[in-house]
TrEMBL record:
Protein name, as recorded: LysR substrate binding domain-containing protein
Native species: Rhizobium mongolense subsp. loessense
Lineage: Bacteria, Pseudomonadati, Pseudomonadota, Alphaproteobacteria, Hyphomicrobiales
PANTHER family referenced in this protein's UniProt entry, alphabetically: HTH-TYPE TRANSCRIPTIONAL REGULATOR YBHD (PTHR30419)
Gene Ontology terms: cellular component: cytosol
A single GO BP: regulation of DNA-templated transcription
CDD domains listed in its UniProt record: PBP2_LTTR_substrate (cd05466)
Domain LysR substrate-binding: 2-83
Pfam families reported for this sequence: LysR_substrate
């Protein structure tokens, strides 16, 4: 949005995707949510539009500092590093 000259000004922030969808369904605004959160359970009250181009975000893996890294977990971490690009 910044590249297009727009600045986001969130009016509210919530930790619950379900609360956000309920507020949108009640007519109290709009939101951008992850695709996994966009089930068609409220299709009668909210419209879902795909964004183009797709938005991307940086993710990180969170582990306990003293976590024993099993072989399987090491393989997952290697796979994630290899696909980072």
């Amino acid at each position: 949005m910044a590249a297009a000259g727009h600045k986001a000004r969130p009016a509210m922030e919530f930790g619950s995707v379900e609360a956000i969808k309920e507020l949108v369904a009640a007519g109290l605004g709009w939101s951008i949510l992850p695709g996994l959160a966009l089930k068609r359970d409220r299709a009668d009250r909210i419209a879902v539009s795909s964004l183009s181009p797709r938005l991307e975000r940086e993710l990180g893996m969170v582990l306990r500092r003293d976590k024993h890294l099993t072989r399987g977990l090491r393989e997952v971490m290697k796979c994630l590093r290899d696909t980072q690009g």
